[in-house]
């Protein structure tokens, strides 16, 4: 990664100097077919770019961005430049600029195998080749020469020469003439959201129409595509349904017609992200096409992503942040709008429950890491930007926007958005531009709110304090607010405080509620004085603010006995989330959290919450229970999951969720059942063991040595697809053998032969919780390798290796010491690399604190 970085200061200097009038980009990807040269050189394609731009200071110097194996020619204002003199592998030096300039660059760019730039995928099922681009934050320079920063927007014209049997798509509408795909010029957009998709994709079409207030008619051609091998599983009708519902919703609320013509959605292989908001051509990971039975939560998650990306057409594409400091201006809004539109427009009316339980858990974790940062972050360069696509920028930002809606009112919030779009269309903005319109529409001073919520880091904890009078009624109810010493800001919170008690039928239901503005260390909620004594006080009822919720002793005792009796699904989800945060913070023994999941998980009606509980219980067993209790914990989870598997309704999604959980946590006692379900010698009424479930069962069998290479080869023959290959690679790496681990390590760390998807699969199989002793020698190897890996590999692979292979299962003071020793010896390492190691160290230290808490729990 040396030489490929770009600093914020360099970007600001270039933006002050240059203005871009337009790009013409010509790509020839016919080389994607056929065998490689066999000489180890990267497979390349021709890229010819013409950029017309102005310079505010004629005679000045600047640079264009390009990452390519070679440059054939460079021409500036008709002058041929020597590529060997002006191109250094990542930048093209531009000297003596005129007031108006034309730059033409003819280069050989490399196809990607890491999901960055123009990714080339060969489908093992039929040998077909598929291409797609992925650029954020700065990988379009791997495909064409440009000025790679979000505030140098321009119109783009693309043309692509491709194999004759292929179809090609880009941001604008395209047509094939004389063997060349030519695409309509885009509106002014940033380089990172341009896009090309090419190959023999399965393509389905539809259309959306809408009458406009001015009497006009908006017609949007819709398309959806996937690999031919996935076509039998592609439920395009549901994708189009959500798309149309979303377009209706955003048009109703934004009062700004969709501005980018067509709306294609491509589900592509080996994708590093969930999705990307390229205007007119949104790309998604193909795992959103479900090859087997999944729960409603998976469909809700896909709908959320579709709506998230659609919201970006306005927040991010139409109006774009000036630099990555204000990444939240698009990601936080899109994350909020995904849930907001899901509830308002689709069948997924419980999307706020999922948000409270799943998305905010991501934010809470990120906000307690040493790398936490304000929502408006200090992004010094592109490596910083890459790492800030995190739980703070997305889920905390969205949570804060939900709080903002409660603070200023939904009408004022949406009117502010409408003015923001109209005032800054096709331009770039900073924080102040948004705050200005919100002040106009709400009449509130947004400065203090922004300083507390957007410009400080950390998460507050809110705890109820209940004082009763002699008659057993509430004399005073206060909310206590705490902050970590490292981030002491006590923020203003608009919260709802709910009082719950058990009725004669045992149900735990709310009987009183009050909203209050919590500010400072202690806030009295006067409205609840005189209410009958509660069994449970839920601070942040209805999930209006962003905080960690704590409980008083009475409330915690109630949850231990009656969590399953809490009738409101959102309140129940909030309680589960609070209990999990207490477990992570070493305030609740991990074995107690596992016991609560085993006792009440089977009664959880929300399937998304249930699946989150499964993930948390698995994590609690792996990281947070005392080592001496792990064996018993595994037995209890195995037995409990088995009981729930048989007790769940035949064919229900709860049954499927428990089956998958059983496979994840089973110890040796459950392996016989998994083997029986695979070969048909055992059955569970209603459970269909489809291909995806077969792979889920095979991984623990491989990890415990029950199945080996030959059985996994047979399974791949049964499922000889790209998905099957990823599953097989993961299972192969999971086997309990020194030779297997050595091979997996070499394939990921010492070689770059694997694609990004297979690197991810290998890392996923490598670290098995049942193989701690087998993995112990890799702690030293990890710290010896990561600096080199970071320097030599792409940033995506570097992130995968540094995060995925950290010795998190070696939970000891010695591992912490080894981590500290590496940090001390590598103070000059890339800041992004140090951040990843610091985050992993923090997770490990947290695990050790939680284990100490669990060990102190009374033995049973």
Largest sheet: 8 strands, mixed
Number of helices: 28
What is the total tally of β strands?
28
- Mean pLDDT across residues: 95
Which sequence of strands runs across the widest sheet? 5-4-7-2-1-10-13-12
Structure description:
By secondary structure, the protein is α+β, with helices and mostly antiparallel strands. The chain is built from 28 helices and 28 strands. The chain has an 8-stranded mixed sheet with strand order 5-4-7-2-1-10-13-12. Strands 15-16-17-19-18 form a 5-stranded mixed sheet, covered by helices on one side. Strands 8-9-14-11 form a 4-stranded antiparallel sheet, with no helix packed on it. A hairpin with a 6-residue loop joins β8 and β9. The longest helix is centred in the last third of the chain and has 25 residues, at 831-855. It starts with 7 loop residues before the first helix and ends in a 5-residue tail after the last helix. The model has no long low-confidence stretch (mean pLDDT 95).
């Amino acid at each position: 990664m040396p030489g490929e970085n770009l600093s914020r200061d360099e970007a600001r200097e270039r933006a002050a100097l240059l203005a871009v009038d337009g790009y013409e980009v010509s790509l020839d990807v016919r080389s994607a077919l056929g065998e490689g040269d066999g000489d180890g050189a990267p497979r390349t394609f021709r890229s010819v770019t013409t950029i017309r731009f102005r310079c505010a200071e004629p005679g000045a110097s600047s640079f264009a961005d390009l990452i390519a194996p070679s440059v054939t020619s460079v021409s500036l204002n008709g002058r041929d430049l020597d590529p060997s003199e002006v191109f250094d592998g990542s930048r093209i030096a531009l000297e003596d600029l005129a007031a108006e300039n034309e730059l033409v660059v003819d280069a050989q760019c490399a196809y990607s195998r890491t999901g960055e730039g123009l990714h080339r995928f060969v489908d093992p099922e039929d040998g077909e080749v598929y291409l797609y681009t992925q650029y954020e934050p700065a990988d379009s320079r791997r495909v064409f020469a440009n000025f790679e920063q979000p505030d140098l927007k321009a119109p783009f014209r693309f043309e692509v020469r491709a194999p004759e049997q292929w179809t090609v798509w880009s941001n604008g509408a395209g047509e094939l003439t004389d063997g060349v795909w030519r695409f309509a010029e885009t509106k002014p957009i940033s380089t990172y959201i341009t896009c090309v998709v090419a190959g023999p994709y399965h393509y389905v079409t539809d259309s959306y129409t809408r009458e406009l207030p001015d009497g006009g008619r908006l017609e949007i051609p819709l398309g959806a595509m996937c690999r031919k091998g996935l076509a039998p599983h592609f439920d395009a009708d549901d994708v189009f349904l959500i798309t149309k519902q979303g377009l209706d919703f955003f048009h109703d609320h934004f009062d700004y017609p969709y501005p980018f013509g067509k709306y294609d959605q491509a589900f592509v292989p080996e994708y590093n992200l969930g999705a990307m908001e390229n205007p007119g051509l949104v790309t998604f990971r193909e795992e959103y096409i479900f090859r087997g039975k999944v729960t409603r939560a998976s469909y809700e998650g896909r709908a959320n992503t579709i709506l998230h990306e659609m919201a970006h057409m306005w927040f991010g594409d139409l109006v774009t942040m000036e630099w990555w400091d204000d990444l939240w201006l698009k990601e936080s809004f899109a994350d909020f709008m995904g849930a907001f539109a899901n509830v308002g427009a689709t069948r997924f009316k419980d999307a706020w429950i999922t948000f409270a339980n799943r998305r905010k858990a991501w934010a809470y974790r990120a906000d307690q890491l040493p790398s936490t940062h304000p929502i408006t972050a200090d992004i010094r360069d592109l490596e910083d930007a890459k790492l800030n696509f995190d739980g703070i920028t997305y889920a905390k930002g969205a949570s804060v926007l939900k709080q903002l809606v409660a603070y200023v009112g939904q009408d004022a919030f949406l009117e502010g958005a409408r003015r923001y779009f109209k005032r800054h269309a096709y331009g770039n903005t900073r924080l102040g531009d948004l705050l200005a319109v919100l002040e106009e529409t709400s009449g509130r001073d947004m400065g203090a709110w922004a300083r507390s919520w957007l410009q400080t880091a950390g998460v507050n904890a809110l705890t109820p304090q209940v004082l009763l009078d002699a008659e057993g009624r509430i004399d005073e109810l206060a909310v206590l607010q705490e902050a970590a010493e490292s981030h002491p800001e006590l923020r203003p919170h608009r919260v709802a405080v709910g009082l719950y008690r058990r009725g004669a039928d045992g149900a735990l239901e709310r009987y009183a509620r009050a909203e209050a503005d919590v500010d400072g260390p202690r806030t009295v909620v006067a409205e609840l004085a005189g209410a009958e004594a509660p069994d449970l006080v839920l601070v942040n009822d209805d999930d209006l603010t962003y905080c960690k919720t704590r409980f008083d002793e009475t409330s915690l005792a109630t949850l231990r006995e009656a969590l399953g009796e809490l009738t409101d699904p959102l309140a129940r989800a909030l309680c589960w989330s609070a209990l999990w945060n207490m477990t992570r913070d070493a305030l609740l023994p991990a074995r107690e959290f596992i016991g609560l999941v085993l006792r009440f998980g089977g009664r959880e009606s929300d399937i998304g919450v249930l699946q989150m509980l499964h993930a948390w219980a698995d994590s609690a067993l792996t990281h947070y229970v005392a080592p001496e209790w792990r064996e018993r914990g595994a037995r209890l989870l195995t037995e409990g999951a088995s009981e729930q598997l048989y007790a769940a309704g035949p064919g229900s999604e709860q049954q499927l969720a428990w089956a998958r959980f059983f496979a994840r946590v089973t110890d040796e006692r459950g392996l016989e059942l998994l083997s029986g379900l695979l070969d048909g010698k055992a059955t569970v009424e209603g459970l269909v063991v489809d291909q995806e479930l077969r792979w889920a069962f095979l991984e623990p069998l491989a990890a415990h040595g029950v199945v080996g290479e030959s059985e996994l080869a047979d399974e791949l023959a049964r499922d000889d697809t790209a998905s099957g290959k990823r599953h097989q690679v993961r299972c192969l790496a999971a086997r309990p053998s020194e030779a297997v681990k050595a091979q997996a390590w070499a394939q990921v760390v010492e070689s770059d032969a694997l694609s990004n998807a297979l690197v991810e699969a290998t890392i996923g199989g490598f670290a098995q919780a049942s193989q701690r002793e087998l993995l112990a020698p890799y702690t030293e190897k990890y710290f010896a390798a990561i600096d080199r890996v970071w320097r030599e590999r792409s940033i995506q692979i570097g992130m995968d290796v540094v995060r995925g292979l950290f010795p998190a299962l070696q939970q000891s003071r010695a591992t912490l010491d080894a981590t500290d020793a590496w940090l001390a010896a590598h103070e000059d390492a890339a800041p992004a690399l140090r951040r990843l190691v610091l985050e992993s160290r923090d997770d490990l230290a947290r695990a050790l604190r939680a284990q100490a808490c669990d060990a102190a729990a009374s033995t049973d």
